[in-house]
Specification:
Elements: H1 2-31, E1 57-63, H2 71-83, E2 88-96, H3 108-114, E3 119-125, H4 128-132, E4 140-144, E5 150-154, H5 167-177
Parallel strand pairs: 1-2, 2-3
Antiparallel strand pairs: 1-4, 4-5
Length: about 210
């Protein structure tokens, strides 16, 4: 009887470890899965809402307001603005479907972005601006120089919801301070920008994992 109990516990332990391992593997795959890449215009569109300050570069970031993993992108943006004071103005555009209630887009992400010096937050109704810049993934950042020419396109996190050193932030800092960088494009780790009920939409918790 004792042997049977011990065997049962061993089997349960093995199954539990296997389940934990499978769950961690799935989370790792999800965190490493990049969103749809953008092919932004080579020059800042003249009909865009973005109006860079003379002599300064302009960063445009597109955000799904209910995407928890984009918090890391906002945090990295704050660090980026600290490194590039006086060289960069940032515009964070928050997607909002026209038919959704007022202030649907004004989540903690909105207020976190608005609190960063040098950042301007804008409501992007029906994703008009995002489509103009060909952005499709929350957290995607595009940088134009003072003349409106494209400098950089991509994400500024190393994976979904991951804060810390990353190729995107490093590339932007190098481009603005040193004038060149090894990379001008990076992957964007985030969820669908346009689907209000997507992985990061209301009522879901996928990005929290």
């Amino acid at each position: 009887m004792q042997k049977k109990s011990r065997l049962f516990l061993i089997v349960c332990g093995v199954l539990w470890l296997a389940a934990v391992g499978l769950g961690l593997h799935r989370l790792w795959i999800y965190a490493s899965e990049a969103g749809v890449s953008a092919e932004p215009p080579a020059h800042l569109p003249v009909n865009a809402q973005i109006r860079p300050s003379p002599g300064q570069a302009a960063l445009v970031m597109f955000v799904h307001p209910h995407c928890p993993c984009t918090r890391a992108s906002i945090g990295e943006l704050a660090l980026l603005m600290t490194h590039c004071q006086g060289r960069l103005t940032a515009y964070v555009l928050f997607f909002k479907p026209r038919e959704f209630p007022a202030d649907w887009e004004k989540t903690d992400l909105w207020y976190s972005a608005a609190a960063i010096p040098g950042v301007i937050v804008i409501q992007d109704e029906d994703g008009l601006e995002a489509r103009r810049f060909h952005a499709a993934t929350s957290g995607h950042a595009i940088v134009y120089d003072g003349e409106g020419s494209l400098l950089f396109s991509g994400g500024i996190t190393a994976s979904r919801g991951h804060s810390g050193d990353n190729a995107g932030r490093s590339a932007i800092v190098a481009l603005l301070i040193e004038g060149s960088a090894e990379r001008k494009e990076t992957l964007t780790f985030g969820c669908s920008l346009f689907d209000p009920k997507s992985e990061c939409g209301e009522g879901t918790t996928k990005c929290d994992k």
